[in-house]
Amino acid sequence: MAVDYTVIVVYLAGMLAMGWWGMRRAKSKSEFLVAGRRLGPWMYSGTMAAIVLGGASTIGGVGLGYQYGLSGAWMVFTIGLGLLALSVFFSARIARLKVYTVSEMLDLRYGGRAGVISGVVMWAYTLMLAVTSTIAYATIFDVLFDMNRTIAIILGGSIVVAYSTLGGMWSITLTDMVQFVVKTIGVLLLLLPIAVVKAGGFSEMKAKLPTEYFDPLGIGGETIFTYVLIYTFGMLIGQDIWQRVFTARSDKVARYGGTVAGTYCLVYAVAGAVIGTAAKVMYPKLPSADAAFATIVKDELPMGVRGLVLAAALAAVMSTSSGALIACATVANNDIWSRLRGAVSPKGDDEAHDEVKGNRLFILIMGIAVICIAIALNDVVQALTVAYNLLVAGLLVPILGGLLWKRGTAPGALAAVTAGGLSVIGLMWWYGILANEPVYYGLLISLGVYVVVSLATKPTDAQVLAAWRERLAGRGSEEAEPETPVTV
């Protein structure tokens, strides 16, 4: 395993080096939080694909393939569909707003009264997303070094917190680009063909497995619908995804680069399901479906290649973890803390260098909190389900309503966030956290309340809507444009 260990250690050292390099570039709030809004199409596509394809998409995607066959691709497939929908229909408008958070968009659209409540909901979502990603380090380091769970979480989490704190979005962008390349080579170009060959090819796989393993709808229509509702819609409104959209150099980069990333996700989804199906042929009686990825890597790959594929899994986890961490810290500082204390810098965003220190401090604080919660938390699936249910039921309607329906009002948005959030919590208590009904009914309640309250209240002020349209058109922002675009 010495060669494998060397590959992993070099990879981790490289991540820290990227953090140090990013620190030299992140001299303003814009540079620190959104990489100066100057990423070109290739770098934007790679980093966007990296953040959405995390440990759940890699280890969990292979596990679903092991359990359900080719239809196990649907979870990751719906993530890709959500990213495609965001890129094609909304990303250009989002990029032109020149904001930092989803709550700032809601304030612009509704007149400045939706920020704190929506910020709390978004903060809870990004916090749980970061926690569940951090927990995944335990699985990977256990395979690598037979390491204690707590030590594994501290080690993996500390590396992500370190490079994220040092350079903010620049460090995360550079590391995510490396992680994208490592995932592509490790999972798509190495693990996928090797797994199929080791399983005897597709003909042997079909001969040894039940026919439902090759039914594209075998996982069940209700499950697919739930995936669409949670993951596809979740991609449309998550702070971690929007913050990447904000890094695009132009609205065209956001649209076309995101489309490339979404298409990549669809391919990755199918690859994970095929790898899991191959693992079922080779190891029909594993104790857990989620053990399929680690087992096939540990037992079937040659040294060196094994280290690279495990680095790919580590890359998947780190990209999601770092993206969720900076999103969580950005929301905590800009949407909650700054509003509660009522402090507004008199300088422009790019001149208020002290804001970089403030955001860096919040990443450090949130990172320590994430590591502590990850150590204490055992049920990852329940935590992630609560986070996505709150996000979709609480924020989907006000956000999409603000983008698509000019009659939506601030009282309607606040009522929708409150009613959707409270109802989904109550329904999870009634039906169970993992039930599908809470997000179904919570979303319907949020939609009904939004429409009724908006129609029953005074329309949004004409000046607010006029300012909103100016920002959507790419005008009206006081933020300085970047001087030198990054075209990679």
UniProtKB/TrEMBL annotation:
Transmembrane segments: 6-23, 44-66, 72-95, 116-138, 150-173, 180-197, 217-238, 259-279, 308-332, 361-380, 386-405, 412-433, 439-457
Main location: membrane
CDD domains the record matches: SLC5sbd_u3
InterPro entries xrefs: Na/Glc_symporter_sf, Na/solute_symporter, Sodium:Solute_Symporter
Source domain of life: Bacteria
Record Gene3D superfamilies: Sodium/glucose cotransporter
Membrane-topology annotation of the record: Multi-pass membrane protein
Keyword annotations from UniProtKB, A to Z: Membrane, Transmembrane, Transmembrane helix, Transport
Entry keyword Signal: no
Compartment(s) of residence: Membrane
A Pfam family of this chain: SSF
Family per record: Belongs to the sodium:solute symporter (SSF) (TC 2.A.21) family.
Listed PANTHER family: SODIUM-SOLUTE SYMPORTER-RELATED, SODIUM/PROLINE SYMPORTER-RELATED
Protein name listed in UniProt: Sodium:solute symporter
